[in-house]
Design the sequence.
C-alpha cells in the first residue's frame, strides 16, 4: 500500500464543509414514540399539544364547602347568612364542585349549625377558591415546541394534559470499530508490544454523555478486507461509524482506502494537533469518521467532529463551552501549520487564574483526565510566552478551580494521599499537584503560581535542608516553611541486587545502567552531591542524563529491567518491590506563601498533616518519619534568634 | 384522626438539623464494584491506584528503526555512519524496542543500502523517540482520589493502568409511594374528581437526573394501615423513601402518623411556600420524606430536601445553582411567615434581564416547565415592587435567555406556532410568550420588557385597529406596527347551540352563563363595545366578571359545560368543536420596538411570518386571513401622509 499524502484542511473549514456534504447526502435524524414517563432528557421531534385540560373538571382549591355564590350575597360579620343543608356540599382540596355550584368557602370561615346548616360571615365571590378547568393546561394548547428537551416538569405537564406517549428524536447508534494487530482487549497483564484497546471505552463514555448510544465492535486485525467488511456491517447497523485506526500510522493504515471502497472520503488530514490524520467520510449517506489511534488525538477528533454531528442529529444548538482567561505559567511553542490543542491544569492563586500546560504527548491519556481546560493555539500562531493572558476552554467548573489547592514542586506520592484525605474531609475541596522538582517549586511560589510546594533541598555546607535556600530566595520572608515528613532516600536497585551494587560509587561501574531525576529536583541535587563526594565525573555514569520526573517512574524503569539503579525514596522502592540501599533521611517540607496560609484550603490541609489518618497512611507506605508535621519552621535569622 | 398543627421551622434550620439527625442515625452510602468500562459518571468510593504502567514496555514513538545510541555517535551530514544489518530493527509506532537498543531514528532520516545496512546522518540521543515505561501512568500511582466522578478519560487512564473494575458508591434507590383515594394512574380520559398520578413520573425523572434510581410503587388508598405497610416495605427495600400525600391536605392525611408509627418525625411543617406541609422523618435509619400532593410544592420540597440527601450520599458538594440579577416586571407580594419560591420567566430585552412572575398556584405544573428561574423571597420579607432588581436562581442557561424572543401581549395560539417555526428554523432561538392582553402588551413594550406584543385594539370611532392606540401611547414613534393576521372574532357557544343564541344580545338573557376575558384584553374591549352598542348593562350578564386569560381557556369552559357563551376567535372554537357566531374580522398585529427590530431574532421571526409553513399552519387552524404578513404599517400621521 502506497504512502498517502494527507491534506492540511483548516479545522473550521473541514467541519463546515463536511456538515454541508452530509446534509446534501440526506443525513438527518429519525423519530420514534416513547412513553412520556420514560421521556426525560429526550428531544421532541414535533410540537406537543395537550389532549385534555388540567384540571379536567372544576375542582375545589381548598378544604371547605361548595356553595351557590348568589346564596351568600349580603353576608357580613354583623349580618351572617345561613346556608341550608342541601344548598352546600363539603369538599376537600381537589374534589369536584357539584354541578351548578360556583364558589368555595374555606372550612375556617364557616360555623356548622346543629340543624346541618352553616353560617357564613362574608359573601363568596363567584368562582372563588375554585380551580377552573384548564387553569394549568388547556386542551389543544402547545405544551412543548419541536426540538425541545423534555424536563421532569414537562413530563408532569404532558401527563396532566392527557398525553401518555410522545414523538421524540431517536437516539443515534454510533458504531466504534477498533482496528490493529497490536490491539488487545483490556486485560490486567498485557504482553510487551500489545496495546490495550481502551479508546473504545473512552469514546463509548463520551458518546453516552452526549446522549447517543455507542456500539463497540470486536477488534479487527490490520487486513484491508476485514476492515472493509466490518465497516460495511457497521454502516448498515448504525447511524454514524467511527473507525479507530491502529496506532501504526504508516505501513498498515487501511482506513481511508476502506472507507473510499464503500463510500466517499471528503477530507483526510486536518490542520489540528493532535488529530491531524483524521478522516471525514460517508458510507450509504451515513457519516464515517477515521479516528487516529492515539487516545488524546482520538478524543479531540471526536469532540471536534462527532459531537457536532450528534447535535445536528438532535437539532440542538451545542451549548458553547465556557471560556475564561488565565495566565500561562510556562511558555508554549506551537507550529504555524496547524491549530494546536494544549491541555492545561488550572488553579486560582489569590485572584489570579493560572494555566499550566500538561504533557502534550498524544499517548498520554492521563493528561486529559487531569486537564481543567484546553488552550487552543490558532493556526499561524507560534505560541505564547510564560505570563501571557490566554483564552481557555474550561473543562472544570470555575467553582472547582476556586477550591483547588495548587501544589507545585518536588514529587512525593504522599501528596496524592494528602489530596485524597483533604477531599474526603471536605468534598468541596480539591488538590492538583505538578512535579517540577524542589527548585521548580520555589520558583512557582515566587511567581505566585502555587499555594504550596514540596521541597527537600540539602545545603551541603550546613547539612540542613531548605532553610538556606529560603533565605536566599525569600530574604524578606513572605513564605512559611511547614514541617512535613522525614523520608528515607537511597539507591533503588533490582530485587536481589543481581549486579551486587553496594554503594552509590558502584553506579559508575561499567555495565550498570543508571536512571536519573530531572535537573532542579532535590533528588538530582542529592545525586550530584553524591557524585562530587565520591569523586565521580557524572558523564562516566551510563544513563545519568536519562531523566524521569518522579520517584515512581524511576522505580518503574528499574522494575522493568530497562535500568539497574536510580536514586529515590523508600516508599517508591517498596511499591515496586525493589531492593533499597539507604543513603540518608532527608527533610521533605512544604512551602506555603503567606497570602495563602490563612485560607480554609491550606488550614484544612494542615489539619490533614496532623491527622491520624495521614500517619496511618504513611506507615503503610513505609520509609517515612513523622515529627510534629504541620508545624512552622522559622528560617529567617531574626525569627530563629 | 385529629387535626395536627404544623410547625413553621425555617427552611435552612430544618435542612441542617435533619442532615445532622440522619448522620447520628448512621445514614451513609454503600459501595459496589463495577466494570471500569461501565463506570462513567459514577463516584469512586476510595482512591484508585494503577496496577501496571502505561506504556508497560518501552515503545517506539515513531515509525523508523531502533538502534544502539552508542552506534550512532559521531554521525553528521558530512560523516554519515553505517549501521549494519542486525544492529538495528525496523519498528512502527507502538512497537516494542528490542532489548538493549535505546534510541529510535525516524524513517525519513535513514537511507537503506543494498547490503541491508542503513546510513544515518545525525547521532541519536539515548532514549530519543522512545516512550518510556510509565510515561503516561506508573504502577502504584493514584489515578483518582476518593469521591471523584469518573470521566471518559479517567476510564481510559484506569484501563491503561491495568484496572478493569472499580469500587464506586452504589446508586441509592429512592422509593416513591403515591397515596390518595382520588389518585389514578395516568390515563387519557380521567373522570371528574380523579387526579392523575403524575408526581411519581416527575419525581422519578428528577431522581434520575440526580444520578439515583427511582422506584415508583403502586398507588396506596387513604387508609392508615395500607400506608403504614407500604412505608415499611419501601423502607426495607430502598435507601430513601418519599411518601407523596394525596392532595387532600385535611381529613385524610395519614402521612406523619404512619411515619411516626414506624420511625421518627423530626419536622412537620417548614416555613416555605409552596411546600409548607413537608415532613422530614426516618424509618430504620433511612430518610423518609412526606411530600405535599400539589406538584409544584412536591418539586420544591424534593429539590430542597431530597437533593441534598443524594449529594450527601455521593459525598459530592452540590454545584451551586447559578444566580443572576434581573428586574421584576410585576410586583410580587409575599407573606412574612415563610420563604417563598416564585417561578419566573426571563428574557433579555436589550441589555436588561427581565423576570416575570409566573402563576403561583401550586397545582400549576406547567408554570414550572415554563420557568427560567426561581425568585426566593426570604422569610420576613413582604415582597418586591415592579422594577426591583432581584436575585434569581437560574434554571435556564443565560445563553438561552439571550436568544429568547420575549412576546408579551394579546393571546393567540398562532404565537406558539411562530415560536415553534422559529425554533425549527434555528435551534439556537427560542420564544417565550405571556398573555396579558393587548393593553398589557403596549405597556410592556413601553417599559422595555418585550421584543414583540400581539395587539388587536379597535378604535370604535374610526373602526380601525391599533393605529390610534399607538399614536396615543407612542406619539413620537419608537415602535413598529407589523401586519400579522386578520382573524375571525365571534361568540363561541356549545355545539348545536342548545340555548338558541342568535346574537351577542342574547348573552344577557336569563339562564345564559357567560365567560369573559380579562380587562385590558382586546377581546374584552370588543365585548364591552358590543354591550354598549346593544344597550346592555354588563352587570346584567351572568358571569361577565368571570375572567379567563386566553381564547382557549374560554372555549374550554364552554366545552366542559360550565359556561354557555364567550367571545373568542374561530380557531379556538374549532379546536373545541364549538359552534361559532362570527362578529367581525379583526386585525391582529405585532408591535415591535425599534431597538429590537434589527436583531436577528426579530428578523427571523418576520421571515417566519412570511413563510409558506406559517400560511399552511394558519389554514389548518382556521379562521385567519393573511394579507402581506410581516409588512410595516405606518401609524404616525407624518408617516401616512
Sequence:
Amino acid at each position: 500500500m502506497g504512502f498517502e499524502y494527507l491534506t492540511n484542511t483548516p479545522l473550521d473549514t473541514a467541519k463546515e464543509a463536511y456538515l454541508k456534504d452530509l446534509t446534501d447526502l440526506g443525513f438527518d435524524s429519525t423519530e420514534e414514540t416513547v412513553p412520556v414517563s420514560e421521556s426525560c432528557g429526550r428531544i421532541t421531534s414535533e410540537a406537543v399539544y395537550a389532549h385534555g385540560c388540567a384540571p379536567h373538571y372544576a375542582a375545589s382549591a381548598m378544604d371547605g364547602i361548595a356553595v351557590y355564590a348568589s346564596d351568600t350575597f349580603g353576608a357580613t360579620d354583623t349580618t351572617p347568612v345561613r346556608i341550608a343543608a342541601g344548598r352546600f356540599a363539603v369538599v376537600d382540596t381537589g374534589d369536584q364542585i357539584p354541578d351548578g355550584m360556583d364558589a368555595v368557602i374555606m372550612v375556617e370561615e364557616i360555623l356548622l349549625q346543629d340543624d346541618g346548616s352553616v353560617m357564613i360571615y362574608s359573601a363568596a365571590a363567584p368562582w372563588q377558591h375554585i380551580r377552573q378547568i384548564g387553569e394549568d393546561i388547556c386542551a389543544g394548547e402547545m405544551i412543548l415546541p419541536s426540538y425541545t428537551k423534555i424536563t421532569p416538569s414537562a413530563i408532569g405537564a404532558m401527563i396532566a394534559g392527557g398525553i401518555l406517549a410522545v414523538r421524540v428524536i431517536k437516539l443515534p447508534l454510533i458504531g466504534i470499530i477498533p482496528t490493529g494487530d497490536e490491539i488487545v482487549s483490556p486485560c490486567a497483564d498485557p504482553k510487551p508490544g500489545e496495546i490495550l484497546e481502551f479508546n473504545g471505552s473512552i469514546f463509548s463514555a463520551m458518546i453516552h454523555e452526549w446522549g447517543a448510544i455507542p456500539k463497540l465492535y470486536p477488534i479487527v486485525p490490520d487486513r484491508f478486507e476485514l476492515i472493509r467488511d466490518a465497516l460495511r456491517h457497521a454502516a448498515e447497523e448504525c447511524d454514524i461509524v467511527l473507525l479507530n485506526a491502529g496506532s501504526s500510522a504508516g505501513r498498515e493504515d487501511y482506513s481511508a482506502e476502506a472507507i473510499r471502497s464503500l463510500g466517499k472520503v471528503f477530507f483526510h488530514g486536518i490542520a489540528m494537533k493532535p488529530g491531524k490524520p483524521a478522516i471525514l467520510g460517508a458510507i450509504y449517506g451515513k457519516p464515517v469518521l477515521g479516528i487516529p489511534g492515539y487516545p488524546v488525538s482520538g478524543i479531540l477528533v471526536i469532540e471536534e467532529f462527532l459531537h457536532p454531528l450528534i447535535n445536528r442529529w438532535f437539532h440542538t444548538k451545542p451549548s458553547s463551552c465556557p471560556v475564561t482567561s488565565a495566565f500561562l505559567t510556562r511558555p508554549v511553542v506551537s507550529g504555524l501549520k496547524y491549530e494546536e490543542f494544549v491541555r492545561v491544569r488550572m488553579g486560582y492563586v489569590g485572584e489570579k487564574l493560572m494555566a499550566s500546560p500538561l504533557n502534550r504527548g498524544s499517548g498520554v491519556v492521563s493528561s486529559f483526565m487531569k486537564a481543567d481546560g484546553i488552550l487552543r493555539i490558532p493556526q499561524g500562531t507560534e505560541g505564547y510566552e510564560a505570563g501571557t493572558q490566554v483564552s481557555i476552554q474550561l473543562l472544570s467548573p470555575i467553582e472547582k478551580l476556586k477550591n483547588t489547592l495548587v501544589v507545585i514542586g518536588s514529587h512525593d506520592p504522599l501528596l496524592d494521599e494528602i489530596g485524597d484525605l483533604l477531599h474526603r474531609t471536605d468534598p468541596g475541596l480539591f488538590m492538583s499537584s505538578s512535579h517540577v522538582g524542589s527548585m521548580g517549586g520555589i520558583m512557582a511560589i515566587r511567581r505566585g503560581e502555587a499555594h504550596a510546594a514540596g521541597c527537600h533541598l540539602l545545603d551541603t555546607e550546613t547539612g540542613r535542608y531548605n532553610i538556606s535556600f529560603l533565605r536566599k530566595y525569600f530574604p524578606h520572608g513572605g513564605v512559611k516553611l511547614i514541617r512535613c515528613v522525614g523520608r528515607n532516600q537511597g539507591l533503588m536497585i533490582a530485587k536481589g541486587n543481581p549486579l551486587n551494587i553496594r554503594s552509590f560509587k558502584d553506579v559508575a561501574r561499567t555495565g550498570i545502567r543508571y536512571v536519573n531525576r530531572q535537573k532542579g529536583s532535590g533528588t538530582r541535587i542529592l545525586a550530584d552531591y553524591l557524585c562530587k563526594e565520591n569523586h565521580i565525573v557524572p558523564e562516566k555514569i551510563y544513563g545519568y542524563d536519562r531523566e524521569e520526573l518522579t520517584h515512581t517512574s524511576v522505580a518503574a524503569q528499574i522494575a522493568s529491567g530497562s535500568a539497574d539503579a536510580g536514586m529515590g525514596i523508600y516508599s517508591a522502592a517498596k511499591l515496586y518491590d525493589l531492593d533499597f540501599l539507604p543513603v540518608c533521611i532527608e527533610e521533605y517540607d512544604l512551602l506555603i506563601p503567606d497570602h495563602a496560609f490563612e485560607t480554609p484550603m491550606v488550614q484544612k490541609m494542615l489539619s490533614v498533616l496532623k491527622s491520624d489518618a495521614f500517619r496511618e497512611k504513611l506507615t503503610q507506605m513505609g520509609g517515612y518519619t513523622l515529627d510534629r508535621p504541620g508545624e512552622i519552621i522559622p528560617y529567617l535569622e531574626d525569627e530563629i534568634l
